[in-house]
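Inputs:
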Amino acid sequence: MKALLVCEYREGKLLDTTYELIAFANRLGAAKAAVLVGVEAAVPQFDGTLYLADVSALGEYNPAAHKAAILAAAEKEQADYIVFCHSSYGWDMAPRVAAGLKAGQVTEITALVDGGFEVGCCNAKMRRSVKPATTKTVLTIQAGAFTAVAPAGSPNIEKLDIPADGKGVTFGGYEPAEAKDVDLTKAEVIVSAGRGVGKKDNIPLIAELARALGGELGASRPVVDSGWVEHSHQVGTTGQTVSPKLYVACGISGAIQHLAGMKKSDFVVAINKDKDAPIGEVADVLVVADVLQFVPALTAQLQK
Amino acid sequence: MKILVCIKQVPDMESRFKPSGDGLWFDETDLAWRMNEYDEYAVEQAVQLKEQLGNEPELTVLSIGPDRVVEAVKKALAMGADKAVHVQDTVVHQKDPWQIASIIASYARDKGFDLIFTGMQSQDRGSAQVGVLVAELLSIACATTLVGFSYSDGVVNVKRELEGGLKGLVSLQLPALVTCQLGLNVPRYPTLPNIMKAKKKEIEAIPVANLLGEQAIAPTVEFYPPARKGGGVVLEGDVADLAQKLVAILKEKTTVVR
Amino acid sequence: MEATREIYWNIGHGVVLPMYLLVTAAVGLLVWGIWKRLDHWRQGKPLNRFDRFDERAKRMIAEVFGQERVFRVREGGIFHAIFFWAFLTLFIGTLLVMVQADFMAPVLKANILQGRFYEGFSLVLDLAGLAALLMLAGLFVRRFIIQPAGLEITDDDYRVHALLFAILISGFLIEGARMAATEMVTNRSLALFSPVGMLVAMTMANVSADGLLLMHKVLWWLHFALVLGFIAALPYTKLKHILLVSANAFFAPLEEKGAITTINMEDEEAEQFGTATAADLTWKDRFDADACISCKRCQDRCPAHATDKPLSPMKLIKQIGEAAAAGQETSLVEAIGEDAIWSCTTCRACQDICPANNEHVNKILEVRRNLTLMEGAFPGDEVRTAIGNLEVNGNPFGMAFAARADWAEGLEVARVNEGEEADILYFVGCYASFDKRNREVARNFVTICNAAGIRVGILGKDEKCCGEPARKLGNDYLYQMLAQENIETIKATGVTKIVTTCPHCFNTLSRDYRDLGLAIETEHYSTYLNRLIRDGRLALDKAEAQECTYHDSCYLGRYKDIVDEPRAVLNAAGWRVREMDKSGYDSFCCSAGGGRILAEEKLGSRINVARVRQAEATGAPVLVSNCPFCLTMFEDGIKTGGCEETLKVRDLAEIIVERIGGGA
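Outputs:
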């Protein structure tokens, strides 16, 4: 089996998620090749062929051109699987490639199971396994689901000559994120507030627990969308991906997007009224209690 | 201008899900239904565009499914869509994204839509494919994950939400398709006059057989609840006791608490 | 000597014709003044307040002459009531004189104003005049010297006080002058029957006879002119309340308290829902603004006003009047302010106390209907979310509807929605179904009923929110959708009796649902339990006497007159009630009515904390309520107010379930 791994290049850097793709390919037991629209100076370190298209000609976001590059590489490799990370690049590009090949696509794979690829559904409350019926398949893998391997090796680079035609789509650059007052990616302890916290007035309770643990305040997306906490505190696929020593999820149900952002935490404590909340999947300890009652009690206990 | 917005009716995510008899999808008993949250933003953006252009554009809303999806369609009509298409399919849940996209593309192909809005993914299946596949089948420009939208003179300017709060700026020439992310706008609450007007708007019913020409290429093999994770400890009881227990565990298992 | 008086003494009978002409002219001006205003009222939309004439007339007469609404607030109320009766007595006295002079004497050649009758007549009128003067002085001191907070002083107040003082004082001066020239000299014993007049006459002892005659004539014409002025200027001074407030007692609604029109959703012609501009007001809305005498009793009782929200029911009434005067296109939301509109808890304290029978609450609800149904506006995002949850799952929490009956696990209840039979249908409501604290009430109620041998039925997951909070926020559409579903479900069960533990569900099912076709007897559990106890079906253990204070929920007390029964139930269980100052019809809202249970209180200070402090002040260790909203607000208020050590809140059901004793 051959897997073509689609690497991402953004803001002048190769993204590390490449090494999760490699880990996945290893799990599949597939021979690896990679394709990248980037620069020669920043190619993934692995043993295999790297198909390289020039990002300065095509641009970092140019779906038509990137699709052409990926299809060209897939054709040359005769790849069975074309694998993306389920990122803002991956979920944008994967269906285009799938359409080009009329290949079945499986989205946001979390595990390999007997009979197919396992993905989450219904807000991570349920699972389904999918078995593509086409000879070629497009896959996207969930961020953090497959632990990245260490970079090792040196690829042989094959250059691709791709026309730059954007076919009606023009990239206008990036708008930087709002200035962050907190860098959660460096925090050792994060205590996050979810919808279960109830209202903005209760956020200070969670912040106090964070302080008592010597950590930072995090938040799930709904809490940020409601304006209770600033975006810089958001944990999740569209916030920050974190890997603290201790992650405390307060009143967070555990939607996939959030889980993806904190699954790499060393130790996870979840506080939730609902025993069956999906966050229980990743929690080392699930405290079944009302956040507003338990958090102050925990803070008090820590301050003793 | 002709605008199309595609919506899906999904169960409310607070529902308890159980596999159906054939084990391929959820059982529909005791489920409350609503418009897919991402699609609400799509409908709202489409209506805002229509209003921006002086109500000249004709906005069509389309949904595939059994009769119950008409509720969601009516909400879109009440928000401001002009007419609706109900592709009648009592077993829509058996179709994969490829089939769904092909049905929509079949419908849209000869209609000359300038702009198509969809949600970025559905809350139940979440495969995030249909929108982009439709654009590919129709060979039109496409961008996903919109958190910003503006239009002028045949060009759509969007902001894509990327990781870490970063946004990507993209321009699209019409005809185009965009998929909408949560927070793109604030979906309006339909006013009563609009709800009443919606009752008179045309809902064209089309049997799915008229539009479907594809087989499933990524079928679901099984739908099941997650295996209970063995490793996690569940603590219940008096809040003060729990606090003590947890601090003891943290002292033992992490280096965070001394 | 004959006890009588020569009418028109010193004035002469020639005055009669000009007097009647002038009075007719004055009355004509009065009528014209009111007539002109008719146009302003007529610009409002039609409303039938002329039906059931007899009932309305009886009520008007009872209220006007009984002054019961005036009396409800002692401060100022006693003065006004006595002033009114005194002035009325003087008016009747004057009428009697007129009847005697212009009818009895010339036509019947009789004299009623003589002898014992005249003695009584004189005394009564003198005392009335004195009472009027004293009361007027009291009212004067209250308004101009004590100056209660919030009571405005306008130019009109100066003028009217001056006018009334002048009329009363000139009246006594006239009497004094006349008596000084007649009775004091010729009929001293008769003079005793006009004590005040006698005192005045004594001060005129040194005035010459001619002087007395001149003074009397001048004062008489002055008095006459003042009275003419009183009559003619009435439409332009606050004295117009004599007519308008009396009329409003006639026009007051005959429907049950809390009734509001059910919007016809089938009406395809309807373009406007609720009131947006002055053009949407009814004639009654405009009339109420004129009938309002700015007594501020409503404002004094408004819980929102008491906690610094921008709402004043009195200002609201006036602002509506001003908007109406400014033109039909005037926006009401701009005139009143959106925050004020959303701050109302519909507790009805304003409307309940208003001596002018003004209708404050429905004016606010109609503006909310416009905001919600025409503009899709919400007081906050949390309300938008709750409304969305009601639409999808039939409860404001967003909990899966299938879990609605989970509270009943382990209890003996009949699933009447599945065809089982029961004695009563218990309509549980959203809070008792899903909220942890309130589920205890539901469970306790079922336990109590079972102990009394009553088989309780529930609708299970087919029950939906009764729709009341949505309705009170203006969303009649969502309310009707929820109501129709409930009504269909209930009718299909065949039950003949419904009991609820929530006053809001109670009001909605017993009154509002009638407009939509439900005619099943619905009762609140406080009166239901009271009857079970009285009929001996529920035996209670009175063992240890305990003390509590009791909170009258707005939707039980003011809306449904249920004040005694809950107290009787508490007493039957051996609990003594230490009343708060604001209890019964004067109860102070918990803050959650008017749909505000779904909203966050962001302005001013917390209403629920204010009420909890009032409860704490009684010294009772337990506060008892029987409404899920009140229970929720008081639990929160106790925490926020820091009263956890001194006060606990319990629901009536929780109290009773502990006292189930003997055997039923």
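Remarks. Chain B has a mean pLDDT of 95. Chain B has one domain: 2-210.
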